[in-house]
């Protein structure tokens, strides 16, 4: 049985990347102090957790999952929190990203299972 630790680090990296990106939007180009501080701290935690992930998961696959899930979550936050709309091609593209992450996780023999 493979350790879940790399996947927990990857989940942590994704969560903090999403927090950092949301705070980045709130920072208004780093003109607001606290959202800027949250951005820096969240990205630090995210990249640290991603570095631990890369001890066990190949960089290409880890990055594909990290960025793919992050893109979808940030798009959802943009939609709900910032009222940024998505057109049909954007929604189709996001669905393809989700499909790609599912295929990697379900079928890739490069991931520790």
UniProtKB/TrEMBL annotation:
Pfam families per the UniProt record, alphabetical: Multi_Drug_Res
Chief location: membrane
Transmembrane parts of this sequence: 7-24, 36-54, 61-82, 88-107
Keywords (A to Z) from UniProt: Cell membrane, Membrane, Transmembrane, Transmembrane helix, Transport
N-terminal signal peptide: none
Alphabetical list of Gene3D superfamilies matching this protein: 1.10.3730.20
Its membrane topology: Multi-pass membrane protein
Superkingdom of origin organism: Bacteria
Cellular localization per UniProt: Cell membrane
Any one GO cellular component localisation term in the record: plasma membrane
InterPro entries: EmrE-like, Small_drug/metabolite_transptr, Small_multidrug_res
The keyword Transport is annotated on this UniProt entry: yes
Keyword Transmembrane among UniProt keywords: yes
GO biological process: glycine betaine transport; xenobiotic detoxification by transmembrane export across the plasma membrane
Gene Ontology MF terms: amino-acid betaine transmembrane transporter activity; antiporter activity; choline transmembrane transporter activity
Family: Belongs to the drug/metabolite transporter (DMT) superfamily. Small multidrug resistance (SMR) (TC 2.A.7.1) family.
Protein name per Swiss-Prot or TrEMBL: Ethidium bromide-methyl viologen resistance protein EmrE
Organism of this sequence: Methyloceanibacter caenitepidi
